[in-house]
Amino acid sequence: MSDRSPILILRELEARIRAKVVGLPEQEKISETWSGIGFRMGQHYFVSSMAEVTELLRVPAHTRLPNVKPWVLGVSNIRGRLIPIIDLNSFFAYDSTEPIRSRRILVIDHQGQPDGLVVDGVEGMQYFVADSFNEVVPELPDELKPFIVGHFVKDRKVWSRFSMKTLGDHEQFQEVAV
């Protein structure tokens, strides 16, 4: 019988195993992400929270309304709901170079009132590292700045974070009659 103690045998076994074991892969820190719907007005790129945009659509047929501001294109029946169609570029006194057929609508629901916002293009889901958010409002036309809460930069492109809630609360946006 061996005069080595069981504890000594276990320690030797542990040492041999540790010498031959391959370590676990290095754990990568997983960054938290923020995602939203990307859209474009002119050459400016924006992103809004998924919670603020309920639907994306092609510009539907709509009925013009009398005595409304020029940025109110009309009203459309979308799945049984009458939704005002708002030209967001025109609201900000910003000309669109895109034909209406290629433009898209972001449907928002602000305090139970749906609105269809016509934008130049929808850029799909955008994902950003949450820590990369910068609260500084980027260089934009002055009319847009009150609705921007900061920005992200991805692939050398600035994505301004647009607050649909701030837009819905804005007095000028609520006053559509001329």
Automatic annotation (TrEMBL):
Pfam families: CheW (PF01584). It comes from Reinekea forsetii. Gene3D superfamilies: CheA-289, Domain 4 (2.40.50.180), SH3 Domains (2.30.30.40). Residues 33-173 form the CheW-like domain. GO terms for cellular component: cytosol. This is Type IV pili signal transduction protein PilI. The lineage of its organism: Bacteria, Pseudomonadati, Pseudomonadota, Gammaproteobacteria, Oceanospirillales. GO terms for biological process: chemotaxis; signal transduction. InterPro entries: CheW, CheW-like_dom_sf, CheW-lke_dom.
